[in-house]
């Protein structure tokens, strides 16, 4: 359960830091250290961890999170209500697990909004800990962005407003209360936030029942099916959940599907393949559609990243079972091709026009690193301080940021996510970005010793925002900084 003790664990000891650094690189990429115990092995924390199969694989259907309905719509505004509360849900078959939820759902309900249409969401907090809701990838006023210390206290309610004046994209929302965000997200406070653009209908991409959001994450369970949370606990989080279920199946027709993936893990990276290295079309990344489809046979997602693909299950005979495999965890989802279906959808050669890059007026450099002597995760040598403005930026100016992962000694991976804006990737290690990173993004992997160059225009809103590593256990421990957008 969330506790003050866990909140304060962000200040790790140097001894614990040494353990983190020895295996962090492999674990955060999704690999399992050789010391991982077998199912039921005692972990030294009073409970035992489920790290092998938790039930017969592919015995439960993958659910699709329900779409939240507005309670009212007026002119160009839709009004919603949602509550944050504990719930008992079935994750491992035949058991109940206490989780933290939005409206009692694990994952939370999907908000499906339209570009340019205001969404006003009244959140109420029925937990015993503060929360802060952040729409990841949203261009949002600072008062509604979920600044880590701008929290919603227990028993209180507040309004969050989302103008949605941005490209159609697969976004997601999650808790961001500082020092508590890692545990809150681990225990369930996350859901999809999808922005649709009616103008894209002419593309004739798969829609409706053939447009499927898929949230991937890992978890650690005790023998009583309760969740076990510890900061930087990568080696025992070995149960992979797909839309909240371990190794589910999903029936599909022999036709094209649009699959929207988000990695909602705290630390794990997924590297995914479909079937026997089947070729699929990547059509979008974090910030929406690419300029054109990119044929791929595998795709990687660090925490917070999104990828959209189109799969033609018509390439498989009816009766086929097609597995989604992770490079480390193995099969995580099975698609059952169980029927024929008419299909008028397509994947056009041209998907979108990527916004032009304005001239940059300033360049900045940021280094992400872990200090093993203090157990601190740092940006430019400093831990997060809500009272300190690290970067002041004039509204509507364009900057180039060079982000470097300085953790070469222990090989700790990081990634990077600025709030308010999405960016273009100019280069990775001096080379042009790969096609899948050539669109609009808001989260970028930065492996040990790697450097990425990013360009963004900061606006249109004023106020304070954060940028941080989205390996969220790292940001909860201080790998975060504050920027202020000024007139």
Automatic annotation (TrEMBL):
Residues 1-27 form the signal peptide. Residues 28-49 are annotated as: Disordered. SUPFAM superfamilies: Cupredoxins (SSF49503). Gene3D superfamilies: Cupredoxins - blue copper proteins. GO terms for molecular function: copper ion binding; oxidoreductase activity. This is Multicopper oxidase CueO. Residues 28-41 have a biased composition (Low complexity). Keywords: Metal-binding, Oxidoreductase, Signal. InterPro entries: Cu-oxidase-like_N, Cu-oxidase_C, Cu-oxidase_fam, Cu_oxidase_Cu_BS, Cupredoxin, TAT_signal.
């Amino acid at each position: 359960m969330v506790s003050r003790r866990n909140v304060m664990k962000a200040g790790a000891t140097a001894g614990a830091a040494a353990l983190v650094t020895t295996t962090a690189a492999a674990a955060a990429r999704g690999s399992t250290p050789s010391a991982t115990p077998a199912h039921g092995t005692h972990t030294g924390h009073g409970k035992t961890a489920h790290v092998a199969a938790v039930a017969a694989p592919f015995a439960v259907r993958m659910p699709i999170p329900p779409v939240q309905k507005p309670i009212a719509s007026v002119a160009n505004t839709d009004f919603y209500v949602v509550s944050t509360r504990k719930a008992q849900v079935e994750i491992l078959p035949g058991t109940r697990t206490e989780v933290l939820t939005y409206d009692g759902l694990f994952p939370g309900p999907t908000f499906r909004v339209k570009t340019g249409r205001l969404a006003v969401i009244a959140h109420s907090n029925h937990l015993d800990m503060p929360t802060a809701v952040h729409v990841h990838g949203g261009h949002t006023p600072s008062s509604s962005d979920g600044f880590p210390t701008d929290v919603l206290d227990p028993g209180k309610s507040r309004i969050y407003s989302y103008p949605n004046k941005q490209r159609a994209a697969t976004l997601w929302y999650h808790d961001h209360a500082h020092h508590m965000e890692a545990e809150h997200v681990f225990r369930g406070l996350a859901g999809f936030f999808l922005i649709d653009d009616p103008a894209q209908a002419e593309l004739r991409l798969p829609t409706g029942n053939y447009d499927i959001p898929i949230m991937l994450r890992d978890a650690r369970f005790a023998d009583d099916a309760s969740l076990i949370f510890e900061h930087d606990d990568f080696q025992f989080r070995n149960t992979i959940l797909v839309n909240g279920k371990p190794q589910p199946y999903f029936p599909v027709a022999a036709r094209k599907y649009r699959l929207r993936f988000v990695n909602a893990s705290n630390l794990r990276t997924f590297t995914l393949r479909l079937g026997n290295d089947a070729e699929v079309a990547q059509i979008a990344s974090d910030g929406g559609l690419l300029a054109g489809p990119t044929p791929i046979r595998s795709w990687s997602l660090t925490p917070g990243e999104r990828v959209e693909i189109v799969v033609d299950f018509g390439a498989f005979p009816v009766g086929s079972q097609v597995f989604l495999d992770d490079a480390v965890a193995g099969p995580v989802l099975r698609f059952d091709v169980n029927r024929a279906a008419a299909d008028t959808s397509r994947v056009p050669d041209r998907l979108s026009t990527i916004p032009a890059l304005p001239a940059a007026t300033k360049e900045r450099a940021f280094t992400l690193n872990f200090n093993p002597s203090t157990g601190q995760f740092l940006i430019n040598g400093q831990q997060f301080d809500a009272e300190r403005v690290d970067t002041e930026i004039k509204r509507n100016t364009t900057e180039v940021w060079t982000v470097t992962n300085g953790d070469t000694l222990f090989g700790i991976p990081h990634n990077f996510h600025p709030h308010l804006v999405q960016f273009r990737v100019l280069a990775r290690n001096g080379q042009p970005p790969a096609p899948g990173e050539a669109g609009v993004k808001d989260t970028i992997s930065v492996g040990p010793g790697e450097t990425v160059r990013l360009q963004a225009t900061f606006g249109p809103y004023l106020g304070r925002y954060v940028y941080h590593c989205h390996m969220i256990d790292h940001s909860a421990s201080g790998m975060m900084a504050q920027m202020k957008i000024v007139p």
